[in-house]
Design a protein that fits this description.
Elements: H1 9-13, E1 21-24, H2 37-50, E2 54-57, H3 69-83, E3 88-92, H4 98-111, E4 115-119, H5 128-141, E5 146-150, H6 152-155, H7 161-167, E6 173-178, H8 183-192, E7 196-199, H9 205-210, E8 215-218, H10 221-236, H11 240-257, H12 262-273, H13 289-301
Parallel strand pairs: 1-2, 1-8, 2-3, 3-4, 4-5, 5-6, 6-7, 7-8
Amino acid sequence: MAQTTTPDSAAWSAGAPFGRMITAMITPFAADGSLDLDGARELAGYLVDAGNDALVISGTTGESPTTSDDEQAALLAAVVDQVGSRASVIAGVGTNDTAHTQKLARQAEAAGADGLLVVTPYYSRPTQEGLFRHFTAVADATALPVMLYDIPHRAAVPIEVSTLLRLAGHPRIVAVKDAKGDLTAGATVIAQTDLAYYSGDDPLTLPWLSVGGVGVVSMSGHLATPRIRAMIAAYVSGDVAEAVRLHQELLPVHAGVCSMPGVISLKAAMNMLGLPGGPVRLPLVAATSEQEAELKTFFAAGGVKI
């Protein structure tokens, strides 16, 4: 059985400003679609107890596009109050409006966040100079460390290597969540900067570790934190064979989570497990009974019983 112990505290934390095992938490809603703060507290506690070093609140998986600024502030305050003494809490504040992102960053700082996740501005398709100025302006808005979120299949524009090298010079830009999947580009940045690279795609966590990445911002962590943590710990400790074994064992779990937009599959799973989840908000729609049955098959193949 996978263990949640770390190989060595110094080795575990080395080069990983937010820890190594991070889950991007869903935002629980009540049956009527309103924010479920009690559920958020319960789920945050559950995830930290499972072995997460940090949680991302109000990321994509947290349905940030359909939660209001006030809801995001209340959610962050509740999670910080519940687990802030035991884990880092990273606030997703990225939007396609620089001024709005700066406002959300300041709001997160006031609510007690330990760091900021800032996604590439979407829809507007800014130039690389525009990206550089946007991320710099947001990093200048607070004293919090910043994790950039590079996800061109949602944002349309990648953060190019040359831009990442420039951004690495900012004292508060310390990490990248990579959902681009270009290990060569990432390895180039890792080799030339102190930026900490986190996999933003669960199946690629082990490959990212192999080129110098430090951990993962996970969706599958809702279901398999102890084993994902054990995989990272095995690699950090030099037991590559065990890391590969766990990586392969977890592939069906990742496939299930990604079989639909992640928050849909995760909320279906949380609801079936009796954990806080609730409905998704439009334009997302809940999993059908057939899709739920398919999820159970994926998860069972990966050792998660629902």
